[in-house]
Write a structure and sequence with these properties.
With about 350 residues, the protein is of the alpha/beta class. It contains 16 helices and eight strands. It has one domain: Rossmann fold (3-Layer(aba) Sandwich), CATH 3.40.50.1820.
Length: about 350
């Protein structure tokens, strides 16, 4: 707890400056997309009439559960097995070379799809934005699965290092296949940040339409070489301004995890981790060239003002080769996965319309 205070206290003034709390999503409108309607026209885009900084949008997410985020970085405290109202623990052993499933499951109505919700880097299924998404879906009677991804939560283990979406996408398809076999229901997915990249890679690899209700990716990394270079450099207050806080925490959390792995971080800690993996992640995980291969329905929501990843992902994704199965929405505001608070009414309606459409 003392270490947590040392990390969090210097950031409290900036957290308070955000002056906003991540609230539950409102109930979506009852009007679904009409049969045969164009799904992208039905979903539309959020209203940009009011403006909000990327710092405020992102801080709304980051400041909600800082203690949970700190615990997520340590093997002894990352695994949350507390009871959650409406959800039951689910644990499937590893099989076929895939990571085990450790998480929570809400069965929902047999007539509704099951939606898998994936968290971002350094987070877990205990993160508040994940639980808010899950609760909103559960209230609409969807089935909801909240897994911990590799190197996170109950899988924060050196045997299951994060491959930044490469192996995680195959884990996602494996879990979705098992859910379909067991419950005989359609399956979709929502992913935030790293979870968003995982969703994109899974949709590209999904030749058998396992994720037959499609997927939504929010703030996925893209143009990875540029993003990785940004995450590798030492944050500078004069250069990075409000992004300084988020980039500093990213670097600190990565350093903590590297040291627990026995790797002493250098001046470029993100490169240290990628080298430790021993795979060419930039080539294996880059999403922008893979969108043409997506067969199912994929919605990507990203922001111009992302203070963590920068503007490179939005620029890369919006200029990706066209595919009628893929819609990329670049918002002016929203920051990094801050759409959940910034555009909460639109996003609630989007979740409902997207996954209820056949």
């Amino acid at each position: 707890m003392i270490r947590a205070r040392r990390v969090l206290l210097p950031a409290l003034p900036m957290m308070m400056a955000a002056c906003s709390v991540l609230r539950p999503l409102p109930s979506p409108p009852r009007t679904a997309c009409p049969p045969g309607a164009d799904i992208w026209a039905c979903i539309g885009e959020p209203d940009h009439e009011d403006r909000e900084s990327g710092f405020t949008s992102t801080m709304r997410i980051a400041s909600t559960d800082p203690i949970v985020r700190f615990r997520n970085q340590h093997k002894k405290s990352a695994c949350d097995r507390n009871e959650r109202k409406g959800f039951a623990r689910i644990d499937w052993p590893a099989e076929d070379g895939r990571a085990p499933l450790a998480g929570y499951f809400h069965e929902g109505s047999p007539s509704r799809p099951i939606i898998i919700v994936l968290h971002g880097l350094y987070d877990s299924n205990a993160s508040r934005y994940v639980r808010i998404t899950a609760d909103a879906l559960a209230k609409q009677s969807y089935g909801v699965l909240l897994p911990d991804m590799r190197w996170h939560g109950c899988l924060l283990d050196d045997r299951y290092l994060s491959t930044l979406g490469v192996e995680e996408s195959q884990d996602l398809l494996h879990w979705a296949k098992r859910l379909r076999e067991r419950y005989h229901r359609p399956v979709g997915a929502i992913g935030y940040s790293l979870g968003g990249l995982t969703v994109v890679l899974a949709m590209e690899a999904d030749a058998n339409y396992i994720l037959d209700r499609g997927a939504i990716a929010i703030s996925p990394p893209a143009n990875l070489a540029t993003v990785f270079a940004r995450l590798d450099r030492e944050p500078s207050l004069s250069r990075d301004r409000r992004a300084f806080l988020f980039l500093s925490f990213f670097r600190k959390f990565l350093g903590t995890r590297l040291r627990e792995m026995g790797v002493h971080p250098s001046e470029t800690p993100f490169s240290d981790y990628v080298k430790h993996l021993g795979i060419d992640v930039v080539t294996a995980a880059e999403p922008k060239e893979r969108l043409t291969e997506v067969r199912g329905r994929l919605l990507i929501v990203t922001a111009e003002d992302d203070p963590i990843l920068g503007s490179a992902p939005a620029e890369a994704l919006v200029h990706a080769p066209n595919n009628p199965n893929v819609r990329v929405i670049v918002t002016r505001d929203g920051g990094h996965i801050g759409h959940l608070g910034r555009y909460r009414t639109w996003l609630s309606a989007t979740f409902a319309r997207f996954f209820s459409a056949p």
